[in-house]
Design a protein that fits this description.
The complex is a heterodimer of chains A (110) and B (431). The longest helix of chain A is centred in the middle third of the chain and has 15 residues, at 65-79. Chain A is built from three helices and five strands, in the order αββββαβα. By secondary structure, chain A is of the alpha+beta class. Chain A is globular and about 40 Å long. In chain A, the strands form two sheets. In chain A, strands 3-4-5 form a three-stranded mixed beta sheet, covered by helices on one side. Chain A has a two-stranded antiparallel sheet with strand order 1-2. Chain A has a single domain, classed as GMP Synthetase, Chain A, domain 3. In chain A, a hairpin with a 4-residue loop joins strand 3 (39-45) and strand 4 (50-55). The two termini of chain A are 22 Å apart. By secondary structure, chain B is mainly α. Chain B has a domain at 278-426. Chain B has helices at residues 11-36, 47-76, 84-106, 112-137, 144-171, 179-211, 218-242, 247-271, 280-308, 312-350, 368-391, 394-419, and strands at 357-358, 426-427. Chain B is globular and about 70 Å long. Classes of the chains: A alpha+beta (110), B mainly alpha (431). The interface between A and B is large, with 42 and 34 residues.
Amino acid sequence: MEIFDITQSDSFFKLRVVESLRLVIDPELEINIIDLGLVYNVDVNEESKVITISMTLSSPACPMGGTIVGSVENCLTHHYPEYKTSVDLVWEPVWSFDRISKEGKRLLGM
Amino acid sequence: MKSVNRQHPLLFRLVIAHYLLAAVCFVAIAIMLQFVSEDLNGHYFQPKLLAITHTAALGWGSLMIFGACYQLLPVVLETELYSYKIAWLSFGLFCTGLVLFVCAFWNFDPGLCMQAGSILLLAGILLFAWNTFITSSRTEKHSIYQDFITTACIWLLATAILGTLMVFNFRFPFLPKDHLLFLKLHAHMGIGGWFLLLIIGVSSKLIPMFLVSTKQNTACLSWSYYLINAALVSFLVDTYLYGVNMKTYIVAVAAIAGVICWLIFIAQCVKSRMRKAFDMPVMHTFLSFFLLTLSLVALPFIVFYQIKGDGLSVKSTNIYGTLVFMGWISAIILGQTFKTLPFIVWIKRYQHLAGKETTPLPADLFSKRLLSVQFYIFLVFNAGFYAGLFFHSDILLKLSLLWFLLTAVIYLLNVLIVILHKSKTKVYGNF
């Protein structure tokens, strides 16, 4: 996930959004969705005031899928009430264990 | 954007009703056992033991599995449950039938009460199976898990039909062979066809999820599926025609090989897991696998003593039967309840708050200390109980059954802690 580009004025805001999303925890694995590598991209449209999150799930059948997507919406609506939230669930590239961050792996006890 | 699994609003009450009643049945079994400890070393075909066995198989094992299926079918089969109304109707018929059936067995009154009970149970099972078949037929993607679940339902239906025929056979004898022969067939359809296939199908999907396993060898599962089903069909046909004989060894070996294939699949999932620590529910699951393995070890002995016509066949059958119901099935339920039930309660209580407030996680909804105590008490029970059966010690049996009662009470208490959980949250600060 590459969201920081110093030449873009919204980069700092995007980083804040990413940090906010660390509050969204996968209820089974007990790890936040950023460290799990589920979030692929954060896009902010200042004109229409919409934050778009492109993310995936560990599998299309993930039992917690609805909960995780709902939590992302709850989180952003709560922290950025002036923005609308859109979650774009994507399946390409397919999520794999390689996407888990070092911190995520540490939390899994690896 | 593809839609994701969201909990159906009608699911909560349905699943809770099943789990709660199953937990109450578990305590009931533990209480009933206190009155029959001396009979446990006798023949298994006794009214009170049959009442307890059916409470265990139907009220404890099956009711819990029905509830878990309603919760997990949408996950395993990636589709919505076909009908909640049918599920409730099935629950009502099944529970009413169960009460009539168990009371009739306890007092051994094979009349109207037992017959009505068996018909109601069969109707409840028929509706459950119908609901599962239609749900399964709507799935877009075929999988081996689906085969396990739907085949298990077919075996359950077959078990219930034969069971109902046997109930009517008490009053109006029409079955062409000995009642005990049909009891053998009925029991193995239930144990191998319903419980074993269903548990393999569901656990093979869930355990890799819980352990975050990177490797899943589904070829092992296919072998397991065909071996167990082939063993069951061969056992039914051969035993019906010729009784237990030398060929039964081959059947037992095929069934054991099927279970080994599944255990290899599980071992690979454990080996390739990313989540290194094992929690208490998973520890219960491992214990259940160990107890299942012990029950399979008893199988060749049962065949050996039956062919020999030795009275030890009854003793080994008792050990096998109790290892299946009080060991393997109970251990897996005692653990997996706390992997599945907290999720459904958590979604109900916290889904709308997650992400904006600090919420407990599903694993915080039950008492971890109680679950650990339950695990060790259940271990002590197992050690004492099977030693008591093996060495024919009434004292050991009586003492261990008290530990079993304690396990059941602690389990029910922890289930109530989850179900009665009230929301506790803390609002996050702004970033």
